[in-house]
Amino acid sequence: MKVLSNAIKWFLYITTGILVVATINYIIIGDETIPANTLSNILLSGALTTVVTVIFVPSQETKATWVYVKMLLHYVALCAVMAFCGTKFGWIDFNVKGVIMMSVDVALVYLLAFFAYSIIDRRQADAINKRLKEKYSDRD
Q: pTM for the complete prediction?
């Protein structure tokens, strides 16, 4: 159940991040409209990258050096999935420039998703700690 809960959470963070980065890209490029299938493509790419994230995101028990290795592998896997999706969906040309641009976009989504994750998890942890202190401080 925890894996499903994490997958849903990551899907929301990642898909929102992809949507934000895609919106910025469309504004920069200057397109007035987006193709109709773009939103379903964003959902599909969000789902695929969520699977990669659930596989690669290190658990809390992971040693520090392994965390960095897993995060690097995670980023590379995300770039590969998004380069594939970007090519299939017509978001990028599969060449050096296209892959580099997609890697930059992946980095932006990565930062947005982990920023949201850290803010929300920190608030949840603080709320749990506060309730625990209130509950157990009464016993002293």
A: 0.79
